[in-house]
Amino acid sequence: MPTRARPQILVLFAALAVCLLVASPGLAKGRVALIIGNAAYSNEIRLNNPVNDADDLATAFEGLNFDVDLHHDLTFAGMRRALREFSRKAAGADIAVIYFAGHGMEVGGRNYLIPTDAELATDRDLPYEAFEIAQLTQAIADVEGLKLLILDACRDNPFAQTMEMTSQKRSVGRGFSRVEPASGNMLIAYSAAAGTTADDGSGRNSPYARALLKHIGEPGLDIRFMFGKVREDVLQSTGTQKPAEYSSLPGRPIFLIEPEPGVPAAVDETPEESVSADTVVAAWAIVEQTDDISLLEAFREQFGEKNAFYDALARRRIESLSKSEEAMAKPEPEPTEPERKRRTTLAEYGLMVTPDEKGYGVRVIGVQPGSAADDAEITAGSRIVSVDREDVASAADIEESLGAVAASGRRAVALLVEHHDRYSYAVLKTEDGEDTESTPPEIALAGYGLTVLPFGDGRGVLVTAVASGSAAANAGIRSGVEMFQVNEKTVASADDIFKAIESAKSYGRSSIPVTLSYPSGPLWFRYLLID
Fold first, then answer.
1. Scanning 47, 122, 207, 520, which has its CA 20 to 30 A from the CA of 475?
2. How many whole angstroms separate alpha carbon 163 and alpha carbon 106?
3. Could you tell me the pTM of the whole model?
4. Interatomic CA distance for residues 320 and 290, integer angstroms
């Protein structure tokens, strides 16, 4: 194999080894960690060691100079509160870590963490009794540096045996499904690879927590290299369980603890004659996520001849990237006749949709400019999951739901839309014209710049419009969110909102807290100026 690029790649890896993303513990601007251990489940058998795992990991992170929030046996309300408070603390931090030990499950391709008070009688209860992983990643979205999510929650799940499935198009999977980080500088670590379950363990700690405790305090260890050691230890101790990581980390080493003075990092330069297996593993950890084919080829030149396994990994990565480049260069093929027949145009709303290959919701493949769908900011490539809080699986379902809403006299309806890495509500107008007496109208809250639409089921109101420069806009309230509480009082109509505001004014308050939520996100709070 040619050797002309070898000096350059050695220089490259040596340079990468000293380009640290984060400061040392003593210099860290902000290191924060949220540690949760759920063991005492009200409706299932208690788990043996999540509390021990959480306690020991909290101690370990405190030793790494993290400001740690430790919680045991959190209910749904407790987890929501812990995430909200941690999200505020984590904003702008150098490193933020969330560790969860307890029950988790995957249903219909979505991963959920389960609080201790969950009942989960049916799959429809999941959004109201459990937390999607996306809600945890949202809590650390404003972190400036490393975002680390560690989930020791792929254990055998008893809820999967008792939960009623209301849709044949959803299924309960083993463990978690694969996840892609929604933002840069993020690593999501599973205690067991996608589609597999983790061992709860018979000792004080789970096998995964035990391995993590062993390696997390090693100085000069790139974080990807650290999780590689954890993976090897868990596989060796269990024989079957293989942890997995999914990351969007940059192509340079990241250390929880800097190398000790005079001690080379795990990715330090090593002469060819004495290249160690550890060096190859560390070098691969740097390049495995890169999209730069030339860097992967340089890796093969430097290390491939000495290690067939990693040479094969690099070769397959190159082949995958090459195919992706070819696919992007080719024009999108014209749909076949069967594909055309599957497409449905909802002309009244300017939508073209097709059944989703996952069997859940419908894919949007076209939006007519200036249409109701365009006004609602629905985009091609997204997926409509529900209409007026009812699941949809076909264009006929959408037409039926929209028709029922229009027939009831309502002028707008909320569609839950899934994008590549987030969910949002789209407020779709069902018809134009004046309200009638039978219409539950959108109501503008004069003076605050808010227009809301009652759901009619006692579960809050939908914000359909926010006037630019208004009190609502200044409070960070946005169109498409649900409003659940105003001044800590549950609201289900505009009248409820007015009453809560007037009550606060009577006590001399100049601002009030408002509780809001997007469909897949945790509750969040804003303060609305009322005087």
1. 520
2. 12
3. 0.50
4. 12
